[in-house]
Amino acid sequence: MSVNQTIKRYTRIISLLRRRPMSYDEIQNELSLDPDAIEDNLLTSQRTLQRDIKAIASIYEIEITSDKRLNKYFIREDVEDLPSKRLRENFEILNAIRMSRGFGESLIFEERRSLGTEHMAGLLHAIQNKLYVAFTYEKFWDDSVQDRKVAPVSLKEARNRWYLIAKDEKDGRFKNFSLDRIQDLVLEKSKFLPVHFDVEKEYRDSFGIINGTEEEPVEVILSFTPEQGRYVESLPLHLSQSLISKSEEEIRFSYYIRPTFDFKMEILSYGNKVKVIEPVEFRKDVVRDLQSALAQY
What we know:
The protein has ten helices and eleven strands.
């Protein structure tokens, strides 16, 4: 059996048991209903399933055990790291794309600009080998194009886009560059000295990719309508989101975050479904933008 088949089988087992506990027969029945699983011969013996469970615990750090009383398998401990989780999810999407071929509009994608993912392999190589990279870059704000030479540090995802975090050789500052705005990427032969920039720490209190501004992180309290609040509760705006209260009139959350431009734009996008409670200055800033928008009409 190929490595590709093995990874597919691991992924399908994890996905099925995340839905609910299942017996060996139930797992096999679910796989038998999946044309892709049949094509790739993913159905296995119970002995192979036992080996798979051990491998999944070792590779994904997901502990699967059995309830002998119910004769079902279930996930007991799930500490899968984020890269592994995203890789598994993307693998599942890829399988869904394969299954949807020839079935008309059974799988519909949102049309969007390319994410610039064709640059990722080259940039990762440059980051790992400390190689300078050069490229032309089209700015978001004025569509101007500039030549850049940078020392790449990391790749970061934010708001459905991928960004290169790098030290700009022009002024020595750390900046972010959206991959979809990068053109004519060249990996240079010259190397740079190790640079220290803790990306996770620097962006922990940011909403998206805006960083290095004057705003300090503060506690922000937002009041949502019950309907919108339930949506935000299921899909948090920020890692620091914490539920304060829930009633028939409102749902309140607190955040420890920099009240940057992109965070304010996110709040404004909810219209009359949200209200800023604190801090007062940020509340006033949002009110000014709402008044300015109303004046357009």
